[in-house]
Amino acid sequence: MTMPERPLHAGERADGVSDPVPISRWRSGLVHGALLLVAAALVARSAQVQLMEHTEWARLAERQHVREVAVVPPRGTLLDVTGSVLVETREQMKLSIAPQELRTVRLKGRDGRKREVEARTVLRQGLRELGVPAAWIRRAVDPKRKWVELPQRFLPADVERFAGLPGVRRERVMRRVNSSPEGLRGIMGALDADGEPVSGLELELDPLLRGEVGKAPVVIDGKGNRIPSPELEAVEARPGHTVVLTINQALQEIAEQQLELARERTGATGGDVVILDPRTGELLALVGVRDGRPALTSTPLAEAYEPGSVVKPFLVTRLLDLGRTQVEETINTENGEWRLAGRTLRDEHEAPTMTVRDVIRLSSNIGTAKLAARLSPQEEFETLRDFGFGSYTGVPYPAESKGQLKRPGTWGPMTRTSMAIGYELMATPVQIAAAYAAIANGGALLQPVLVREVRAPDGTVRYRHQRRVVRQVISPQAAAAMRTMLESVVDSGTARAADLATFDVAGKSGTARRSVQGAGYVQGRYNASFAGLFPASDPQYVIVARLIDPSGSSYFGGTVSGGMVNGILQAALATREASLDRGKLAEVVKRLAAPGPDATGTAPGVATENPDTSSAPRAPAPPPAEPLPVPARVVVELPMVPGARSAPLARSEELRPVPPIDGLDLRQAVRVLHLAGFQVALASGPSLRTTPMAGTILRTGSTVRLERPR
Q: What is the value of pTM for the model shown?
């Protein structure tokens, strides 16, 4: 059977072969044109990237493969005035361990040969030798842990043994080390966990101490490891400036020690000591104790209080300068009791009249009030303001208080009298010291200073303190007259406890009732102060000492704080690094008389002061100053000065035996050695003893090694 034939389509031949389809020229041209445009665009973009955007793309590639690691510079060092380090930055190393990466590795030994070592064993032994606690060693080698960061910090040389160990990462860190005396810690300040300053001089001087951060470029490899590249330029970190303070570390330690002894002796809850050089305004020591511990801030700068009778000399000196009184003018002191504006003023030393000299010497409230009345309210305000009260001193310390000084428009009926005797105004110990420095140096109020010098990292001196006079407060003649009166306060007035057998001391005591927030003035709570000038004729120190709430009957400033200043001066004289010009001291040294039968310093009629401004019962008179637990005379070796007015000390007086310290504690032993004329170097030993032994004859000023039990 034959199938019917299929009809043929167009272009199909009978033999089954198709005719070729005709090609569209315009469509082909379109495709080729599109390909050419794409190729041209690629070439153009390549040219743009290679020629026009080369720098930008190279920078992007570099950022992807190169990291800039910040290099933290060493923070600047703080030195004391003698060059001793107070605060410094030390380079240390932090160890971080990945226990799972610890494996056997070939390391070069000390003989230069490579050996296979077990990293875990080497790490365990090395950490044990570095004194790492056993619990942390177990963590560091525990393969179940991924990462362990040891809390300890190590010296770079100590962790060099771990170089090349897999899984052990050494990281350089900077640690701030404060080696200053404990009482200076609050002044120096602190850094937080990130190395940022939060208080004290660290905060105030941060722009100088911080330095400039450097940059260290490293190349990142395929595994993310950082590889230093010698071809990339690094920016070196610039260390901070070195700051030389005016603080004298030896004098600071003496002041801290004497304040603690006075606090223990009197039961005081705290206190302050400021030692200032009245010739330059340099602060040599700043001590503050609260509740038996060093204060967290510099209380001599940050805490103002009502100072009491230490304010009296300022108004009297201005009256002398204005010619409105004379040193020997007689003032009616009303037999020690006087009613004024409804209140009663009392004097401890009852007398119908006193000279102006005795008003200061015996601290007469009545005499001072009558003298102050010769000044108008505006003049009294300006006098106290000119002496620096109610204003910042300019010391670079972030928490400084300016105190309080009321303007005349706000005064009450008793304000004039209260301010004249040290109430209704607030002052810091540093302000008081600066004001007394004006009396000591001839009338110039100086800006107190804590920074003597600033040095760049290369040693170049960028700043050096120059004596800055804020204003001339009083004339040199009035200042000299007041120094003479203040000298009488110590030799026969209210502050005999501050007197020295070797040099004349001047000063003024003050005992002010202390107010408690919410309770007003509280019976039995006092601020006992003493401001001293040493030596009296040509002062090199102004010392302001304050005790807070001394207990017992002996709470008067002249007795308790004056005795503290006496101890500071004796220890300073026995220490060569105490910022004293011993050549000038040789010109004013007193001849040492042999001790008589009344060697204790007890004298009848020792003047005292009454701190009360109300009609409350009078406090009992303080007992006579206690004798110091040292030999009757303290001989201080001074250099020979041509033309000195005093005779040179005999050769036999330059030598003395090392005193025995049996039965004393460490603090008492140090004090006895200092007061005997020797320097003290502390060391560890089996028991408390001296080297050389007690009784050995040494020249005064020699160093005695004091061994304390381990």
A: 0.71
